[in-house]
Structure formats: C-alpha cells, structure tokens
Design brief:
The chain is mostly helical. Helices cover 64% and strands 5% of the residues.
C-alpha cells in the first residue's frame, strides 16, 4: 500500500503548480527540491500512519507550504489536493485497488518530471555552488529576497 500511495502522492505533487513555483523560485532555500521530496515522503507517512480527514491533510499542506516555503496558497489548491489525497487514501484502506487504479489513470501526467529529479541534483549543486561562491555580484540579489516573505498563489478563476 505504501508503494502505491507514494506513486499517487508523487503524481499529485508533480502537478501542483504552487509547489512547483515555490521550488523553482527557491522559496525553501537552495535545497527546495530536496525539501519538496521530503514533504512528499512525509505526507505518505502522515496519511498512512494516522487517521486523517481531508481537512487534516489540507491543514498539514498549508502549514508545510507556509513554514517550508513561506508560501500561502490563495488558489484553493491545498483544499483540492487534500480531497484527492483523502479519496485515494480511502480507496486504499478499503482495498479497492481496481477503483484506485482507474482514478489514478484519470490524474494528469506530470508535464515535466521536476519532483523526482532530486537524485540528479547533487551533481548540479556543487557546480552551482562553485559558480555562486566566485560570483560576488549575486550579493545584490540578497536584499530583495530578504524583503519578500510571502508568495501568494492566486486563483485563475474570476470571482
């Protein structure tokens, strides 16, 4: 069950625009991708080891995005994702693997495999670190990063 649920969480998180933007813009610092992968693992364990409702999952996702990425999702994505995760969790706990597979196949494929790329990142990090350590001009960017504490992801829908 853990392996199946991990694939589900990975597919959902890979399509989560707010998380992808937070990682791309390094809102979690230089290890944003690693943090996103750790969150994926945490959510699998949290959901499987606890009796959780969709609201609990939403609260956990909102807290994680706020604490780890200084990001508040104003687009209702945490609510939508928590409902989807909870649905899959219930199907797995009921051992309804057939419906689970059907629902999983309805999820959109990740357009890019950005989330699982943590394995290839360590090779790239030293090169980036060596570039940034010799590049003294990057210190001008730091005050801008310090000034911005929050990122608000707005809904695409007009209200």
């Amino acid at each position: 069950m853990t392996e199946i649920f991990t694939k589900i969480i990975e597919r959902i998180f890979s399509n989560w625009t707010a998380l992808q933007l937070a990682v791309q813009h390094s809102h979690g610092g230089p290890n944003s991708l690693q943090i996103a992968n750790e969150i994926k693992t945490y959510m699998v364990e949290y959901c499987l080891q606890n009796k959780v409702e969709a609201e609990d999952i939403r609260d956990a996702l909102e807290e994680i995005m706020d604490e780890e990425f200084d990001t508040i999702c104003d687009d209702n994505s945490t609510k939508e994702i928590s409902i989807i995760i909870h649905r899959f969790l219930q199907l797995l706990k009921q051992n309804d693997l057939q419906t689970c597979e059907i629902e999983f196949n309805k999820l959109p494929e990740a357009q890019e495999q950005w989330l699982g790329m943590c394995q290839s990142q360590p090779a790239a990090v030293p090169a980036e670190e060596s570039d940034s350590s010799s590049d003294d001009n990057n210190t001008e960017d730091t005050p801008m990063e310090e000034d911005s504490e929050w990122t608000v992801v707005k809904s695409r829908k007009k209200r």
